[in-house]
What does this fold into?
Amino acid sequence: MEQLYCINTLLGSPRKLICQCCGMPLDDQTISRETDGSFNEDYSKWCYSEGNFVYKSLEELIDFLAGHMSNESWPPEQVREYLSRQLPKLSHWSRGETSD
It folds into this structure.
């Protein structure tokens, strides 16, 4: 089985990569790829797939994440509040990118 590594890994991971859409830490297994197979070190494979953004709006992403991240000690309202403050700081949302 062929293993592919992004340049960040080959250089000894000098930068801590995070998805600029959802904030998830990235590694070679979670980094998205372009349609030509090259790595896109800005996004996770769950936020950017086959050259397209998965979430059409910040609200859509927050809805998805709140449903998966909430629990008894962190209710959905708190998750939403936290994400509503943090996610707009990421470059994808601060630049106003969408998947239109």
